[in-house]
Specification:
The protein has 131 residues and is an alpha+beta fold. It folds into 2 domains: 52 residues, no CATH class; 71 residues, no CATH class. Helix content is 21%, strand content 31%. It is built from 3 helices and 7 strands. The strands form 3 sheets. The chain has a 3-stranded antiparallel beta sheet with strand order 2-1-3. A hairpin with a 7-residue loop joins β6 and β7. The chain is elongated, with a radius of gyration of 21 Å. It binds zinc ion (2 copies). The site of one zinc ion has 7 residues, from β7.
Length: 131
């Protein structure tokens, strides 16, 4: 990662450095499509490389609620708090299915923190729940 912005990270199909990104979703790890100024399709791109770089440091930074360390939202092994109404099915497998109207909150933890923190609970659940 360079901070001076001189090293192009994306290239257009013509081989030139591409600074116009389309359908780029950093949160979901979607690299998107990149074009140089000449070949960029219309309409205008959502974010240019420069804008993405400007946004990265603070916009994607959170604190893990379990370990207290920094979280970069572009990491893949993350859990976000979600709540909502869950449809309960009776007379079937008994499992919990789709969450209707999920409400996400801006609360984040590392995947490994979840696994470490809730290992004990998972064991208990196994003891009393499924066999
Ligand atoms: Zn091009
Ligand atoms: Zn953590």
């Amino acid at each position: 990662m360079t901070s001076d912005g001189m090293t192009p990270e994306h290239f257009c199909h013509c081989g030139k450095p591409a600074s116009f990104g389309y359908r780029v979703r950093l949160l979901n790890d979607i690299p998107g499509e990149w074009y140089c100024r000449e070949h960029r399709p219309n309409p205008a791109p959502v974010l240019t490389v420069e804008e993405l770089k400007l946004e990265t440091p603070e916009k994607f930074k959170r604190k893990c609620e379990l370990c207290g360390n920094d979280i970069d939202l572009r990491e893949s092994d993350l859990h976000q708090w979600m709540s909502g109404w869950v449809k309960i099915r009776r007379n079937e497998s008994g499992g919990v299915h789709n969450i209707a109207l999920p409400m996400t909150e801006d609360r984040w933890v590392h995947g490994y923190c979840i696994r470490r923190e809730y290992k004990g609970y998972a064991k208990q659940f196994d003891m009393f729940g499924s066999k």
